[in-house]
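re: ur msg from earlier - yeah i can do the nicotinamide-adenine-dinucleotide complex, just paste it... oh wait u already did. ok heres what im feeding in:
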Amino acid sequence: MKVGALREVAEGEARVAVTPSSAAHLKKLGHEVLVEQGAGSRAGFSDDEYRAAGVEVLPTAAALTEAVDVLAKVRAPTDAELNRMHEGQTLISYITPASNPELLEAARARGVTTIAMDMVPRISRAQKMDALSSMANIAGYRAVIEAAANFGRFFTGQVTAAGKVPPAKVLVVGAGVAGLAAIGTATSLGAQVYAFDVRPEVAEQIESMGASFVYLDFAGAAQDGAATGGYAAPSSPEFQAKQLEKFRELAPQMDIVITTALIPGRPAPKLWTADMVAAMKPGSVIVDLAAERGGNCELTVADEKIVTENGVTIIGYTDFPSRMGAQASELYANNIRHFLSDLTPAKDGVINQNMDDDVIRGATVTHAGDVTFPPPPPKVQ
Ligand code: NAD
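and the outut:
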């Protein structure tokens, strides 16, 4: 089959779905690989590097789309991109199918098979294809780097001849993939790190990374992560009140707050309120990784950096992985080529859309003239 990557059209999107090194792997699966001219330029991969890896470079998006059997992308396709596709082609990309029913219907009507990289089941066997995790890991790391650059003070404590510097205090709210990456990065920079999650089972992970888990004085039932497939469920009003009370107590002490709290399929819970921001010290920084879903902080503005009257910087960027475009592309392109490896079991360049396979079934959101989202629950964990 011919597998090709478009140049992303979204403003500020630096990533690309196929890199020269992932192309080499795709060729070993028996595929021919193509890219649109300039597809990798913002991630630092020149057309010549692609050519040197045996990739054909086509001059336009239209020519590329016409030539391929499998179209690989980072962002969900625009109408124009989808309208160029035809029956029998496969699209593999981020889709966010739950909030994109029109896109699913349009792809179905065109006879396109759509594979949503954000629907890869979170089971052990599929970790190598888990783009949500690979991108969240980068976002967590980059959030700390942005915080440090805007903080303008040391993260690590120092005792020098010129004076004593206390370590920065960092609070990470939400210890999923992004939160754990942020905790690891902040502790390695020498900060004193605190972290909170509604899933009590992460306390051990947080503590093993050298951070302190923030415990709530709460007698009611805590969240039961196991009942929700490892994801958080919405908190009870009593739990939420306790959580906010704790955050209110911590706000004046923290230099950096990194929020990553999300509940699948819902807007981000509002956990860092305006009065908490007002209680923070001037020079403190909040990085809100939930900005795209409305933000965990009440004052976050998506895609912007704002400074409040009391001198707190609030960063609501939604493009953290793209800010590390080369590496984000390598990891995302690896996720895609691993998926294609499962779709090409005989390594003969022939796609086998095996809908009995949990991972393929879970990620396939349109196929054979049907919308196949939502998928049935996976059989194997
Ligand atoms: P996510 O992005 O959906 O949410 C981020 C974090 O926010 C979660 O840890 C969640 O518990 C937390 N959160 C939600 N509401 C909160 C609140 N009110 N206060 C504080 N924290 C709150 O999560 P994710 O990073 O995608 O990971 C979710 C789960 O999936 C985790 O259990 C993770 O271990 C699991 N996972 C499994 C695999 C696998 O392949 N086995 C891969 C990746 C993730």
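cool cool. The chain has a mean pLDDT of 95. ping me if u need the other ligands too
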